[in-house]
C-alpha cells in the first residue's frame, strides 16, 4: 500500500466536518475554504484539490512534513467525488493571524527591530531544516506562505502550501544520474538535491533582506512584475545594502544574507549552516541580537498598494529558478564544432 493510500479517507468529509463557502485563500493548486470540525467545534481550513499525480504529491509531502511546530499541520485527507470529479480534500489547522509582512505592516506598537527579524528567521529556519532533513524541498518560500496561527502576541509563524514541494534524492542517487548527453551539456546542473534545496535558501535570503529594510533586494526598474534587467541582476547577484535603511543593521545579518544569496548554488549556505550557532549565531541565538530599530514596518506601510507587486516579483523570480532547476539548461554545441557524422555528410554535400 502506498503512503498516500494510508493517509487518505474515502468516507464523506461531511460526516466529520461542516463546510462553509467562506474562502480563506488561494493556494497554488486549489482554493482554501473555512470548515468546522463537528466533534470539537474547532475551526479548520479546507484545501480543495482536483485529484492528480501532482496533487497527491503535494498532499503526501505536506503530510510527511506535519509535526513540525513551524509547519501548518495537516489533520485529515479525504478522497471524495465533487461535481462528478474526484477531489482531494485536505483539512488543516486554521491560521487566523495573517501573512508575515501584513502583520509587520499593521504593527503600530513601535519600530520593528533587528531582534524581532532574527526571531522570525529562526522560526522559518526551523521549518526549512525540518523539510531538508526529511529530504523535502519546499521551493515556494515567500511571504504569502508564511502565516501566523492567531492574532495573539504569542502566535506561531508557520510555513504552508506545498504545491511546488519536491522530494530530493540522496547523494548516492544523484551520482547515478547522468548530467549530460553527447550534444547537450549542463555542467551547472549538479543534481536535484543541491538545486532544489538551494532554491529554498535563496528564498530565505530574500525574505530576510525584506525583513531588515522593507523592500526586496531585486526589483524591476520599469514597473513590470519582472523585467529582463531584474532577471540579470538576480543571476549576477547584483544587490546592495543602501543607507539609511541598512546603516544600523549588524554586519552579522548582512554576511548571512550574502551567504544565502550566493549566485553559485555550490557556494550558497545550507540550512544547517544558516541555523548553526557557530557559523550563524544571528539566527540560533536570536535573543542576543541587538534591538536595533529598523525602517521595515514604516516602509511596508508606505508601500501600501505597491506591496502586491513586490510579492508578484518574488513569485515570478521563484518560478524562474524552478524552471532552471527542473529543466536541464542545455548548451547546444555550435554546428561547426560538432563531429556528428550526419552533419559531416551535409557539410560535404553543401561544399561539393
From TrEMBL:
Any one of the GO BP annotations: regulation of cell size
Reaction it catalyzes: L-threonyl-[protein] + ATP = O-phospho-L-threonyl-[protein] + ADP + H(+); L-seryl-[protein] + ATP = O-phospho-L-seryl-[protein] + ADP + H(+)
Catalytic class of the enzyme: transferase
InterPro entries linked: CDPK_Ser/Thr_kinases, Kinase-like_dom_sf, MAPKAPK_C, Prot_kinase_dom, Protein_kinase_ATP_BS, Ser/Thr_kinase_AS
Residue intervals of the Protein kinase domain: 18-283
Pfam families: Pkinase (PF00069)
Coiled-coil annotated spans: 318-345
Membrane is among the record's keywords: no
UniProt keyword Transferase present: yes
This enzyme's EC code(s): 2.7.11.1
List of residues binding ATP: 47
Keyword annotations from UniProtKB, A to Z: ATP-binding, Coiled coil, Kinase, Nucleotide-binding, Phosphoprotein, Serine/threonine-protein kinase, Transferase
Gene Ontology terms, MF aspect: ATP binding; protein serine/threonine kinase activity
Family, per entry: Belongs to the protein kinase superfamily. CAMK Ser/Thr protein kinase family.
Protein name: non-specific serine/threonine protein kinase
Species: Bombyx mori (Silk moth)
Amino acid at each position: 500500500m502506498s503512503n498516500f493510500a494510508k493517509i487518505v479517507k474515502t468516507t464523506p468529509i461531511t460526516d466529520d466536518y461542516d463546510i462553509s463557502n467562506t474562502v480563506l485563500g488561494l493556494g497554488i493548486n486549489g482554493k482554501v475554504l473555512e470548515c468546522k470540525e463537528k466533534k470539537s467545534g474547532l475551526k479548520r481550513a479546507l484545501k480543495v484539490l482536483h485529484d492528480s499525480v501532482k496533487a497527491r504529491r503535494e498532499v503526501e509531502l505536506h503530510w510527511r512534513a506535519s509535526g513540525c511546530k513551524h509547519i501548518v499541520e495537516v489533520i485529515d485527507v479525504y478522497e471524495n467525488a465533487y461535481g462528478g470529479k474526484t477531489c482531494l480534500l485536505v483539512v488543516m489547522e486554521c491560521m487566523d493571524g495573517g501573512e508575515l509582512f501584513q502583520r509587520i505592516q499593521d504593527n503600530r506598537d513601535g519600530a520593528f527591530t533587528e531582534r524581532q527579524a532574527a526571531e522570525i528567521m529562526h522560526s522559518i529556519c526551523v521549518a526549512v531544516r525540518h523539510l531538508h532533513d526529511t529530504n523535502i524541498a519546499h521551493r515556494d518560500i515567500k511571504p504569502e506562505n508564511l502565516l501566523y496561527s492567531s492574532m495573539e502576541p504569542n502566535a506561531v509563524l508557520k510555513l504552508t502550501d506545498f504545491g511546488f514541494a519536491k522530494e530530493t534524492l540522496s547523494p548516492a542517487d544523484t551520482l547515478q544520474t547522468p548530467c549530460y548527453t553527447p550534444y547537450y551539456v549542463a555542467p551547472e546542473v549538479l543534481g536535484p538535491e543541491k538545486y532544489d534545496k538551494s532554491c529554498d535558501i535563496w528564498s530565505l535570503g530574500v525574505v530576510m533582506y525584506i525583513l531588515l529594510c522593507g523592500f526586496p533586494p531585486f526589483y524591476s526598474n520599469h514597473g513590470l512584475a519582472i523585467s529582463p534587467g531584474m532577471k540579470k541582476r538576480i543571476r549576477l547577484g547584483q544587490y546592495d545594502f543602501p543607507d539609511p535603511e541598512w546603516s544600523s543593521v549588524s554586519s552579522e545579518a548582512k554576511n548571512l544574507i550574502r551567504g544565502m544569496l550566493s549566485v553559485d548554488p555550490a557556494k550558497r549556505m545550507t540550512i544547517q549552516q544558516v541555523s548553526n550557532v557557530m557559523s550563524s549565531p544571528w539566527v540560533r541565538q536570536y535573543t542576543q541580537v541587538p534591538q536595533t530599530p529598523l525602517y521595515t514596518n514604516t516602509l511596508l506601510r508606505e508601500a501600501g498598494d505597491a506591496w502586491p507587486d513586490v510579492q508578484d516579483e518574488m513569485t515570478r523570480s521563484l518560478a524562474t529558478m524552478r524552471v532552471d532547476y527542473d529543466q536541464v539548461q542545455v548548451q547546444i554545441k555550435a554546428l561547426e564544432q560538432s563531429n556528428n557524422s550526419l552533419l559531416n555528410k551535409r557539410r560535404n554535400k553543401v561544399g561539393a
